[in-house]
Design brief:
Blueprint lengths: L9 H4 L4 E14 L9 E14 L5 E6 L12 E8 L9 E3 L6 E2 L2 H12 L1
Antiparallel strand pairs: 1-2, 1-4, 2-3, 4-5, 4-6
Length: 120
Amino acid sequence: MVSAIEQYSAKTLRQRAFAFDGTVVGIETRVDSKLPDGDQERSWVTFQVHRWFRGGTADEVPIWFDGRREFGLDPGVRLLVSGQPRWGGAPLDNPIAWPGGFTRPWDEGTADEWAAAFDA
């Protein structure tokens, strides 16, 4: 797990364990019992994946998503999502989307930049 806050760039994006282009198909509230008492409820968001850049191959992937309000997250919203396993492990073990530019609204130009970053 990274201890310092990283600035978004192509270089730091490539360091994420997973990254994909996806559309929200479902949102639940779940409890992560590893978080402190009283602060365990988080959004668990399922995405239909249009393209994997790193970390997976499935057509759908559920992930923890703490920035729900930031994106007006509703079914049908398309995002570029990258992140890490929340508690360590394989890329999609308790995966959590990273904020601060590492997850962002989809647009064709940025999707092309992400593809180039991961192909580098």
